[in-house]
Amino acid sequence: MMKLTEIAHARLADHLQAGDRTIDATAGNGHDTAFLAERVGAGGRVIAIDIQEDALAATRARLAAAGLLDRVDLVCADHCMHLATLAELPTGCVAAVLFNLGYLPGGDKSIKTTAANTELALDRARRLLRLNGLLCVTAYRGHEGGPEEAARVEEWMQKQSRAGDAVEKHVPESSNQPPILWLLKKEGALLP
Ligand SMILES: C[S@@+](CC[C@H](N)C(=O)[O-])C[C@H]1O[C@@H](n2cnc3c(N)ncnc32)[C@H](O)[C@@H]1O
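A: This is the predicted complex of the input protein with S-adenosylmethionine.
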């Protein structure tokens, strides 16, 4: 069975084109940022955001080793706040946004995404997406606050689906609170 990351990356690989602009809202150790940077090519752009300098240092090292650093803007900030500042970008200029929620693997587990902040960040991210743009969100339910955050993302996704977006959900078979991946394609005309 494919891992959730493989499902998300396969979908992004089909979707992204050279020259696209993308956002990794949770850079972490840089696996997703490096994947996006590879896919958008030398003429594309990735904005990689993380609230921790440690995460950005790991991402920077991974990108440098792969020769991809020049096409990525690394931003140390809360993604919710930073996405608000990106509102000056024209609505619809971003091909894909990724959220890989939770804490930094191998890092301080108390620094993690939270339900209310994530919900607002998703609103802001969706607004930046172009029509047919892709929003990939993975939530983990094994840590404190994780189930509440996943439930909040589920509600948010259902709201977008009712408004016309195409939403797909992937949950690996497991008896013990597996992670969830949502893939949203922006199609809804009712919401900005
Ligand atoms: C599961 S990790 C991301 C893994 C990453 N996608 C990768 O490929 O390695 C989650 C990351 O979200 C970051 N984070 C937590 N709250 C945040 C916030 N409010 N804004 C931006 N990043 C945040 C954490 O510091 C952590 O590095």
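The radius of gyration is 15 Å. The helical segments are 4-15, 31-40, 53-66, 79-85, 115-128, 146-162.
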